[in-house]
Specification:
It is built from 9 helices and 6 strands. The protein is of the alpha+beta class and 451 residues long. The protein folds into 2 domains: 384 residues, Outer membrane efflux proteins (OEP), CATH 1.20.1600.10; 36 residues, no CATH class. Helix 5 runs antiparallel to helix 6. The relative contact order is 0.14. GO terms for molecular function: efflux transmembrane transporter activity; porin activity.
Length: 451
């Protein structure tokens, strides 16, 4: 009878979640935070967000001066040349001047031949450019900012999906572990049946048929327990996979009573990041449209060169600066910018339509999740009542069997009903929690920390 009382405690009390619901929530939240830190899929999304941040930094840097060192050196001989008859043109004049002045101040000059390729010539300077007016750079920066918002939304979408998967895997593992416990309790019952049947057989009260049947039932229950244990191992491996942990790592389970939520909101999709992604896509395409139309705005920039150039010399005469401004105004490009603007407008309208369709889909998902949760809750409440009836039925049948008023097969049927009712309540409980996690996902209510 003590075994039956122990089984009663396992079946009736053991199927609740945690008498300390807050402690369970902390345990589950700790696992979720661990998944946020170590899940490889989420890390990939975070890397994409980092890439978007770097792209924005790059876009901002385009507004700053661009400084480069430019240098060249040439050594040449031969090639095209031009004769400069300096001696022929000036020597006669210089001779006359020397005669008139009675001096030799004006030397005789040689005719020169100057090649087009400079020999022993160098030019080294710092070249600085700075955009003054460039609408393309401004819109490009705005687009990069929007892309960061979109990627942040993508990270949060992945996080919310990960939260649902972790919670689902957690309660699936809980269900599998509880199933093993239920089969162990059933084995205890079968062992008690074997003991009673052996005693009755020894006393000549029963024949060996009941004992043989109980031994057969023991083997069947062992096979079911082994299958449940394998399911638990697989559930543990999947849960640890989500957390990027070794598959055999221990999972802490809080098992006692759980608190059901109150009224649930059926219209809360305003926080869904999927909608935010479509909003960002629409805004990005709107900026791209303005970017394609900004070709009509002239591009104005300035430049400054500071350096030295000369033929084998470096002095005050060789050093120089060179400053200027440049203007580029695209007046005609065969309609390229117009066609690009039309493409951007088509992309914007596509994003707008995608937002509307996604909103409708999310409303449908929320309604279905709400219905699934209430259906799972009703099923759980029904299985709870079924378990109580099965327990009472087994108590009555067990008493009748001990008094010799019942066949063993009838007692075995009552025991199997209790086992099945316990398994169904176990499954229904996990179904409630999984449905609640799905509802939480569709409403996007789980608090996410910034990555």
């Amino acid at each position: 009878m003590s075994t039956l009382l122990n089984l009663s405690c396992v079946f009736i009390v053991g199927m609740a979640i945690s008498s300390q619901a807050a402690a369970q929530e902390r345990t589950l939240d700790a696992y979720i935070q661990q998944a946020f830190q170590s899940n490889d899929g989420l890390r990939q999304q975070q890397f994409q967000l980092d890439k978007s941040l770097y792209a924005l930094d790059e876009a901002k840097s385009l507004f700053l001066p661009n400084v480069s060192l430019q240098s060249s050196y040439t050594k040449a001989s031969g090639g095209r040349a031009i004769d400069v008859p300096l001696g022929d043109m000036l020597n006669g004049v210089y001779t006359t001047l020397n005669t008139l002045t009675g001096t030799h101040r004006f030397p005789q000059l040689q005719n020169e031949t100057i090649t087009f390729n400079p020999d022993n010539y160098y030019d080294a300077h710092l070249h600085t450019t700075l955009p003054l007016v460039d609408a393309e750079l401004w819109y490009n920066k705005r687009i990069k900012q929007q892309q960061i918002t979109g990627q942040q939304a993508a990270v949060n979408v992945y996080k919310r999906e990960l939260v649902r998967n972790v919670k689902t895997a957690y309660f699936q593992y809980y269900q599998a572990v509880r199933a093993v416990s239920i089969y162990n309790a059933a084995l205890d019952l079968v062992a008690e049946n074997i003991r009673v049947n052996q005693s009755m057989l020894a006393n000549g009260v029963r024949n060996s048929t009941a004992l043989t049947r109980s031994l057969s039932e023991q083997q069947r229950t062992l096979a079911q327990r082994n299958q449940a244990a394998n399911t638990a191992r697989n559930a543990k491996a999947y849960f640890n996979f989500l957390l990027n942990r070794p598959s055999a790592d221990t999972i802490l389970l809080d098992t006692s009573l759980f608190v059901l939520p109150g009224m649930l909101d059926t219209t809360g999709i305003d926080h869904r990041e999927e909608l935010e992604q479509w909003k960002v896509a629409e805004q990005t395409n709107a900026l791209n449209l303005q970017l394609q139309r900004s070709y009509i705005i002239p591009q104005l920039s300035t430049f400054l060169d500071l350096g030295s150039q000369g033929v084998g010399t470096f002095d005050n005469q060789s050093r120089y600066y060179f400053w200027g401004v440049s203007l580029q105004w695209n007046l005609f490009a065969g309609g390229q910018h117009t066609y690009r603007a039309r493409q951007a407008e088509a992309d914007r309208r596509t994003a707008e339509a995608g937002y509307d369709q996604t909103a409708e889909t999310l409303h449908l998902e929320l309604t279905q999740s709400f219905n699934n949760y209430h259906s799972a809750l009703e099923t759980y409440q029904s299985t709870g009542a079924q378990l109580r009836f099965a327990q009472k039925y087994l108590n009555d049948q067990n008493k009748a069997y001990r008094e010799g008023q019942l066949l063993y097969v009838e007692l075995l049927d009552a025991q199997n009903q209790l086992t099945e009712a316990s398994l169904e309540e176990d499954q229904a409980f996990a179904g409630v929690q999984i449905a609640l996690a799905d509802l939480e996902r569709t409403q996007a209510t789980y608090p996410l920390k910034s990555p």
